[in-house]
Hints:
Blueprint: E1 2-6, H1 13-25, E2 31-34, H2 40-53, H3 59-72, H4 75-91, E3 94-96, E4 104-108, E5 111-116, H5 124-128, E6 132-135, E7 142-146, E8 149-153, E9 161-167, E10 173-179, E11 185-191, E12 196-200
Parallel strand pairs: 1-2, 2-3, 5-6, 6-8
Antiparallel strand pairs: 1-9, 4-5, 7-8, 9-10, 10-11, 11-12
Helix pairs in contact: 1-2, 2-4, 3-4
Amino acid sequence: MRIGLLGPADGDAALVRQAAEFLLGKGFVEQVVYLGADDSAEVAGAAWALELMGFAATYENFLEHAFDLALGGTPQQIDELLERDQKLRCVAGLRCLPRAPARAVELFEDKVVLFVHDKAQLDAEDIANSFLVVYGRSKGVALNHFGPRTFFSPGPLKAGQVAVIERQRDGNLAIAQLSLQSGDVIGRTTLETRRAKMVVLS
């Protein structure tokens, strides 16, 4: 499993879409988590879906259009609708954090990864049960270790970086930082049970 991370966009829905398309469209990840507290991801997803489908992308609307085409459409029109619906699944990979004080949790086998906008809202129990805490509210990219736990933020999205969490073949988790402009990996951190190694790529 690979999860993309987008830092807060401060209301710039177009930037969120650009970053999500980059990660989802190129197959870097299966899903993207937007770490902002605003509605930029919802706005971006709705506009993206509308552009793809040509109508509000609800289940009922899809069935209505599919029914109409089944009765009077051409095979090409039906194929085009199904193709657009397949692309819509990519949009569904853009996820938002639940509203505070809730937080999102993902399990990488035995490792708990916690996603939150502001790490200050976490309590001791949240932190104690987590291997990795990913948060959005930060002035820049941040990586800190507290015992066996790691705190990571990709920083504001306007800085032009996104990140990807993935499980490596050895079972450890890794965080890759990517340039949104060039697509290059600009840094990689391997999170081991006892310590983390960070390699900065030139």
